[in-house]
Design a protein that fits this description.
Blueprint (H helix, E strand, L loop, with lengths): L2 E11 L2 H14 L7 E6 L3 E4 L16 E3 L7 E3 L3 E9 H4 L3 H18 L5 E3 L2 E6 L2 E11 L2 E9 L23 H5 L4 H15 L2 E6 L6
């Protein structure tokens, strides 16, 4: 039975740490009746290190800050031109297990990329989405009180060089790619709109709404 509506906030370019702390507050304060939200954002350059992250995977960060965070997974990079999507969902209410939630998010990304004519796949042993063996999207979630926060990062049209300063997601030499390399010039807002539609479909919501206001 599809849930009624999934609300989306388009946040534009916003610093990583205030956004992360806003996610924590939202999750800590939500109740059984709180509606689910998805936040779409771009971040200024930052490396984020997951709870299981090992310091040796941060090779040469240079002038890019490294932030230790409370999601799963290893180190990754966020920067302008990457679509970061935070999924603030009551997973218990959705009736999904964590593995199923990850799989549905990956299916949303695969369908989005397919809409641009880019064949993509997920790997059962390495969460994320890949094109021709190169990683195009990363996933890292945290579940607290049966609710998810953090989410996914899709490389759209960005500078990939900082990924060479780390072992992305803990894999030395992992090739990274982005949508613009496979689909040519694209509109960032169009990618966001298509991904919104796929998330609504694959997470079994009936419709989407755009939420006004910020997160501060």
């Amino acid at each position: 039975m599809p849930l009624h509506s999934l609300g989306f906030r388009e946040l534009g370019l916003k610093a990583y740490e205030p956004t992360w702390h806003a996610m924590q507050r939202f999750t800590d304060q939500r109740t059984a009746g709180t509606a689910d939200e998805v936040w779409l954002v771009q971040h200024p350059s930052v490396f984020t290190q997951g709870q299981a992250g090992k310091a040796e995977h941060v090779l040469l960060p240079g002038d890019i800050p490294v932030v230790q965070v409370d999601r799963g997974g290893q180190v990754t990079y966020h920067g302008p031109g990457q679509l970061v999507v935070y999924l603030l969902l009551d997973v218990r209410r959705l009736g999904f297990g964590v593995r199923e939630l990850v799989s549905r998010i990956e299916q949303s990304l695969v369908a989005l990329l397919g809409s641009y004519g880019v064949p993509a796949t997920a790997k059962p042993d390495a969460p994320g989405v890949y094109v021709e063996g190169a990683k195009i999207a990363s996933l890292g979630l945290r579940i607290r009180k049966g609710c998810s926060f953090h989410g996914l990062a899709l490389n759209v049209d960005m500078n990939l060089e900082p990924f060479r300063r780390i072992n992305p997601c803990g894999y030395a030499g992992l090739a990274m790619t982005q949508l613009s390399e496979h689909a040519g010039p694209i509109e960032f807002a169009e990618v966001s709109a298509r991904l919104r539609a796929q998330l609504v479909k694959h997470l079994d919501y009936a419709e989407q709404t755009t939420l006004a206001g910020g997160i501060d």
